[in-house]
Model the fold of this input.
Amino acid sequence: MSSRTWARVHVREQTNVEPNWLKMSLKNPTEVVLGLIFLTLSGATFLLMADFPSGNRFQGMGPAFYPGLLAALLGVLSLFLVLKGVFTSGGEELIEEERNKEPSILFGMHLKVPGTLVVIVCLYLVLTDMIGFLWITPIFLVATMKTLRAGWALAFITAISLTVLIYIIFGVALRVPLPEGVLTSG
Amino acid sequence: MFGEGGFFKLYTAGLAITFQPDVLLLLLIGTSVGLIIGVIPGLSATIGVAILTPLTFTMSTEASFALLLGVYCGSTYGGSISAILARIPGTIAAVMTVQDGYPLVQKGEAGRAIGLATTSSFIGGIISVFALAFFAPLIAEMAIRMSAQEYFAVCLFGISVIAYISGPSLLKGLISGIVGLLLATVGVDPTTAYARFTFGTTELLSGFHMIALMVGMFGFAEVLRLSEAKDHEVRKIQDVEKVLPSFREIGRISFTLVRGSVIGVFIGAIPAAGGTIASIVSYGLEKRISRHPETFGRGEYRGIAAPESANNAATGGAMIPMMTLGIPGDVVTAILIGALVLHGMEPGPLLFQNNPEIVSSIFLLMLLANCIFLFLGLFGAKYFAKVITLPRHVLVTMILFLAIVGTYSIQNSLFDVWVLVFGGIVGYFLTKVSMPVAPLILGFILGPLVESYFRQALIISYGNPLEFVRRPISGTFIALTILVILSPYLIEKLFGIKRGIR
Done:
């Protein structure tokens, strides 16, 4: 179900003509938002390039030319996307299987598990450097398994087995210096 | 180009480095792992190759490709096992195999179905390797004469094709490709050594690591997507007996195998087309030319042979533009470009000139990988199929953990893992809003090359952009790029066929 924004404009005539109602609707708000995001990216690129030195044709036009060209192209295409979202209905042109699917939305309960996983991974990266790979990894794996609704026994067995396996493959066989942190370093 | 001895020297240069115990062992491991990855619905060759690429950093080039090509060939075949036994294609390329594979299982002929799929995949794969070995050197010989303008035009064409083919919205595909090209500009400008978009950090001076971003956008994003599923129940599979097909059965489908293989090689060679399209086209053609099309969908042997030979033949086909021009034939070969770069090599004609032993080794490894999965499939399919019964949360956790540690191991840098997380979040949300990820990754991989060729061409022509269209080859590819971009509108105007638009 696509959301619609309605704006009504009254038009009053001097004579006895009934007022016209103009309805403006965003046909595909997701594309409008996407287009605005990429338009912002394009604008931000130009802003960041403001300090880049200019070049000449013997240097291949300098460091700003190529990203500037890309940002300009991105800006134009993003504008098309915004206009497409305003004037073109995504609902009429969806292919049949897409009609039957629940529409993908950016906010909702289905993001709870992926969002939790992202938070767990971020915490893992911060803590592994501080505490050490061997100590924090089993905790991270148990947290991941529990987020994915596994039982405690399976979570612990998987966590210990994977930690040992990865340590043997990477730490011992491939000699990758895994983060030691405070608790593991000498 | 190949010096004294020509093609013979090219084909034999890799014998010594390929037939080493460690290389052959990695090929066996890679093919087995690839088979397992292919069997598991939700995983694909893309994820397998993306996640394993960082692990190959410390290996030799031939050992790396033994592992990665094994995964590529094994997983392309492996999708047919779950397609037949569990009615769920393990990989998208096996979607047509379900049509006639599962009905055969229902008739009690699961073994025959597996045998046909295995043999068809093997023959398709072998034919594609011979096609690769024959055509690639010829194209490389022509490509060496190309200049910066031509290479730029070819790269642009590759990005436009993947933007077109990766989803119903060409506009979103093009935006995705341009964002990828823009992300590739982060870091030190190769021509002037000026630091662009680094925000004063030393980590960003060399830009985002290609492997970290790829593993994030394909691996971590896929993990996030798989984690949404509420269903973690264990699936059941059919028992498998009598897998080995008879010569008579193979004889019945021989013409189908050849047709499917040729289709697979040609479609695979089109940048970004890949095995899925090849298998669909092959199945459709076989049904159309059949005297009894009503048998398709009810356990018709050719309904398995056609798509399976085509999707495995596409693997060799996809390697042709990757190795000769540096343009990936599909997403997996895009990642393999990253693997070559990781080992200090650049795909393209110079690969044939400077590293003929690696080129030759790739031909041999693909040949051997097909032989290995033939053996594993005919004698071990029923054991590999049991992987489908593993709980999903165990698999997802393993993939996530392997992706993190593998990415860390590239440069022993946690920053690369942060790039993985960033790529994963971006890739996940792009998929949610129906933005294709493949053009972004391809744009990112080709970005440095595209910029380099573009600026070289401008330097050579004193800043004159008309030079790109004045030269016949670059002009042709630019015209083709414009045609690809305008094609949805042209097709709608000329034939009244509208693409599904999201």
